[in-house]
Amino acid sequence: MAKLTPKQKIFVDEYLVDLNATRAYKVAYPSCKKEETINAAASRMLRNVKVKDYIDKRMKDREKRTEIKQDDVIREIASIANDDIKNYLSFKTEKVFVGYDVNGLPVQDYRTIVNMKDSDEIDTKNISEISIGKDGQFKFKLYCRDNALIQLGKHLGMFKDKVEVTGNMKVNNPYEGLTTEQLLRLAQLSDDDG
């Protein structure tokens, strides 16, 4: 594997923290201040064959070290996105007898019954909170399904961030100002030379 420059190594080390190439480039090249330049250079850096190979190698090393692969992470996020509260709780409303009214007729009311399944029977990894407050109120919360769906959507490329770039870009065009006829003559001359 080809050797990286010290700055390229800093870039890769920083990039692997959060996969943010712009931030990594700013750390590796702190003297570069112009945002447009940083974005373009960071993108170019990711396309550099030596840098790309080193990133791939480091990611594979991390997979071996942590024994966690990208597919494992996606599987866990999908588990959160597809989970259902009924996997943990059952709930129903039923009529209950509360007594008799002034005319001697039975009075019924409704009460909600919530039963949590036994922890030995369920996979608890998607539960973010279970608590009973001082007032005796039971609280049960799963990890956020919306966040999991957004993460999956981003992974699948469903959401594209729109980036607006403004500014003036001056391109040195040596043919600027030539007429169509002059351009055709130049093209013909270059064909004759080739």
From TrEMBL:
Recite the UniProt keywords alphabetically.
Answer: Viral genome packaging, Viral release from host cell
Q: Tell me, what is an example of a GO biological process annotation in this record?
A: chromosome organization
Q: Which InterPro entries match?
A: SPP1-like_terminase, Terminase_Gp1_N_sf, Terminase_ssu
Q: Which domain of life is it from?
A: Bacteria
Query: Per the record's keyword annotation, is Nuclease included, yes or no?
Result: no
One Pfam family, short name: Terminase_2
Q: Which PANTHER family match?
A: TERMINASE SMALL SUBUNIT, TERMINASE SMALL SUBUNIT-RELATED
Name of the protein in question: Phage terminase small subunit
Output the lineage of the source organism: Bacteria, Bacillati, Bacillota, Clostridia, Eubacteriales
